[in-house]
């Protein structure tokens, strides 16, 4: 996940991810017609490459993303038809991990009924190579949205790092002497904000507000929104399982507000678990991958936006857990999840993962092989639900956050994004 395990990575570091050749073993398990999504095109391979991939300055990028966000273009709508109120929306949070994104797209392309969905790619880094890849998708409807408060577009001012911001490890007395911007607001551990970490929570919150409250095509949308990230990988029957989860929740657990298609397991037993689902209290670190909810749940979250925005934790999922545990007069979120996961995390190489000999292809090929071996267990006609009270970790009340979110500017930006979304939604309804 991006929040706790994959922080922001600078683009120069990430370029290494795209030069890591996809292994023959991985390519052998990808249908030939999908190889195009894995092909890396050298930037100096054509006369027009400088123009296509030339570095834009910050002002140019801001103008481009404003224009694109205003346009709200839906690619392939002429082929696959307009977005309906019950269309499954798949929201994908993208930073710069291009190699992983390529493989996520390949996995999505192989999913049954993917042509009935809308993919919304939400970017916090503007890059023409990423854009070209996303716009080359030809198997369903696609939209791109661009987070306008990124570190890329604010490199020397908040929400990026202002030169007069306090150093992360400065002591309060030192910060007061320096008279740095946020001297009075370290986090609960005594540290000052780091923009590359706060960006992920801001981006997740903006993306959700944007999708539910600001897009013309979702004004009346009541269907499910699936939350994925660029380093996820889906099984071919994940939409089938999503529909079964929804039907089962409606029948046996109407209080289950969140569906979950992915779990973090050390071993997988599809022969016994492919048609099993579990109902349990939602926990951030266990049920944040392939998370699904609809507008009704989002509006319940919005009612308590202060619990999310003011909580001193730079992780969006732990902030959501805090909100869940502090709902006046209501129980914590309940989740219904696949015991045989249909969403996987392949992002083992990156900012927080310092494994020696880390190779993206190794993890990807393992997931491919796992899914190939499990194929005969996919597409169950029905599922069996069990209820679990959850372990000690599920039920432990959060006493304090992980920090990184003590700066009042972050809290205010988060709140302002919520208010802006509500205002725009009223405008969409009554314009």
TrEMBL record:
| Entry keyword set | Disulfide bond, Glycoprotein, Glycosyltransferase, Golgi apparatus, Manganese, Membrane, Metal-binding, Signal-anchor, Transferase, Transmembrane, Transmembrane helix
- What is this entry's stated membrane topology? Single-pass type II membrane protein
Gene3D superfamilies noted in UniProt: Spore Coat Polysaccharide Biosynthesis Protein SpsA, Chain A
Q: Which cofactor does it need?
A: Mn(2+)
Subcellular localization is given as:
Golgi apparatus membrane
Q: Which residues form a coiled coil?
A: none
Which SUPFAM superfamilies does the UniProt record give? Nucleotide-diphospho-sugar transferases
Catalysed reaction(s) here are: an N(4)-{beta-D-GlcNAc-(1->2)-alpha-D-Man-(1->3)-[alpha-D-Man-(1->6)]-beta-D-Man-(1->4)-beta-D-GlcNAc-(1->4)-beta-D-GlcNAc}-L-asparaginyl-[protein] + UDP-N-acetyl-alpha-D-glucosamine = N(4)-{beta-D-GlcNAc-(1->2)-alpha-D-Man-(1->3)-[beta-D-GlcNAc-(1->2)-alpha-D-Man-(1->6)]-beta-D-Man-(1->4)-beta-D-GlcNAc-(1->4)-beta-D-GlcNAc}-L-asparaginyl-[protein] + UDP + H(+)
Check the record and name the InterPro entries matching this protein: GlcNAc_II, Nucleotide-diphossugar_trans
Q: In which pathway does it act?
A: Protein modification; protein glycosylation
Identify its protein family: Belongs to the glycosyltransferase 16 (GT16) protein family.
Recorded protein name is Alpha-1,6-mannosyl-glycoprotein 2-beta-N-acetylglucosaminyltransferase
Q: Which organism is it from?
A: Bicyclus anynana (Squinting bush brown butterfly)
Phylogenetic lineage: Eukaryota, Metazoa, Ecdysozoa, Arthropoda, Hexapoda
Name the gene behind this protein: LOC112053667
